[in-house]
Amino acid sequence: MSYADYEVVIGLEVHSELKTKSKIYCSCSTEFGGEPNTHCCPICMGMPGTLPVLNEKVVEFAIRAGLATNCKIQGHSKQDRKNYFYPDLPKAYQVSQFDLPLCYNGDVEIEVNGNKKNIGITRIHIEEDAGKLIHEYGGTLVDYNRCGVPLIEIVTEPDFRSSEEVRTFMEKIRSVLLYADVSDCKMNEGSLRCDINLSIRKKGEKELGTRTEMKNMNSFNFAVKAIEYEAKRQIRLIERGEKIVQETRRWDESRNVTVSMRSKEEAHDYRYFPEPDLMPIVTSDDKIEAIRKSLPELPDSRRIRYVTEYNITDYDASLLIASRNMADYFEEAVKQAKNSKAVANWIITEIFSRLNEEEKEEARIPLAPLQLAELVNLIESGTISNSIGKTVFAECWGSDKSPSQVVSEKGLTQINDDSQLKALAKEVIEANPKAVLDYKGGKQAAIGALVGQMMKATKGQANPKIVNGLLRDLLQ
């Protein structure tokens, strides 16, 4: 039997650190990168006699995330102790939520290969993060700075059937959380990661197979590779007549394999019970409605609006709205620009490329929206050509000079004078007899060589539309 005879079934548990200034139950800083064990206190270290106090902002951010993913909001919620003994939890339990999560029954639409699909959101609950284990010096060290950093956990239904669906969903969730302004979603810092629950079954079967869980995937690429490896591993086991063990595994990026960590716990193993040191969470309908009204326009809505309002393709709109900062940048530029489609093209082709080359974040674009709008307007008005525009773009990148100033200082104004260009066109025709013969012989593309010579002679300043017309007229 081949791999094609099987179906992969995947559910996700997405963990996102919330961008609060202080931790979930104490006033310690949540800032990333401090010296080990400097952002902690008796409360987040679980010292006897200490009492937690819930950070109200955590509840607000969780509700924002729930509303942005079409969840229902629990008006009366509580927190629970999830008991397990592990060195990264000094209390030997994690404060989480069990049967009354803040948010439930939501959904997120994804599109893969032109096919739209709704992924069910079972629940979103709040909890505290654990510390970080550092394996070195022949032993294990613990850094408790992350202990008590507020998290939301987004639990999906087992609705995924491919690694590509998982990647698309993770990209979508990241975008939604950034728009909702509840997390910075920096995967390299661990503020967005996911656990992947995966099982396989023969196509046509309804019963779910035995699942394994792959922990703490903090890269879209690693998640895709782990899913594809684990699915094949489970199929091989079944084909050999062996049983799949329910366990927790991790992705070994050096070997490109999943590796067993420990047996997988069930809910009853955690011995959940209500957290006695924290009051229930009561959220009024008015408060929920106020949070709903404070949400910005979300990615899907923006994408649809960009297509209709700015006359750009759905694909281009999807690229622009992937980052809230870039979408805001685009909208600021088009307020001043004469051609919104041209603005989109410059962002997608030039700005994205530059940011990637220089490894800059989109939050720090070294070209103001007004500079881009002015550049587009200079091209639209015929003051400069598109090719000269790239020279001006490069000069303005990282500078406070306006495009008009660069054009003036460097004498880059486009040549639109017919008589001047006509004299030059005659010289180019005389100097390129082969291209002329090819063109007259029916090779229409040969005129491109002549246009190229004209542009070279004018250092790209000749109006290409006028040049084309003059050459064709002279060659008749």
TrEMBL record:
GO terms for molecular function: ATP binding; glutaminyl-tRNA synthase (glutamine-hydrolyzing) activity. Gene3D superfamilies: 1.10.10.410, GatB domain, N-terminal subdomain. The keyword ATP-binding applies. GO terms for biological process: translation. PROSITE patterns: GATB. Residues 328-475 form the Asn/Gln amidotransferase domain. SMART domains: GatB_Yqey. Keywords: ATP-binding, Ligase, Nucleotide-binding, Protein biosynthesis. It catalyses: L-glutamyl-tRNA(Gln) + L-glutamine + ATP + H2O = L-glutaminyl-tRNA(Gln) + L-glutamate + ADP + phosphate + H(+); L-aspartyl-tRNA(Asn) + L-glutamine + ATP + H2O = L-asparaginyl-tRNA(Asn) + L-glutamate + ADP + phosphate + 2 H(+). It holds the Pfam family GatB_N. Transmembrane segments: none annotated. InterPro entries: Asn/Gln-tRNA_amidoTrfase_suB/E (IPR017959), Asn/Gln-tRNA_Trfase_suB/E_cat (IPR006075), Asn/Gln_amidotransferase (IPR018027), Asn/Gln_tRNA_amidoTrase-B-like (IPR003789), GatB (IPR004413), GatB_C_1 (IPR042114), GatB_Yqey_C_2 (IPR023168), Gln-tRNA_amidoTrfase_suB_CS (IPR017958). Its EC number is 6.3.5.-. PANTHER family: GLUTAMYL-TRNA GLN AMIDOTRANSFERASE SUBUNIT B MITOCHONDRIAL AND PROKARYOTIC PET112-RELATED. Allows the formation of correctly charged Asn-tRNA(Asn) or Gln-tRNA(Gln) through the transamidation of misacylated Asp-tRNA(Asn) or Glu-tRNA(Gln) in organisms which lack either or both of asparaginyl-tRNA or glutaminyl-tRNA synthetases. The reaction takes place in the presence of glutamine and ATP through an activated phospho-Asp-tRNA(Asn) or phospho-Glu-tRNA(Gln). Heterotrimer of A, B and C subunits. Belongs to the GatB/GatE family. GatB subfamily. This is Aspartyl/glutamyl-tRNA(Asn/Gln) amidotransferase subunit B. It comes from Vallitalea pronyensis.
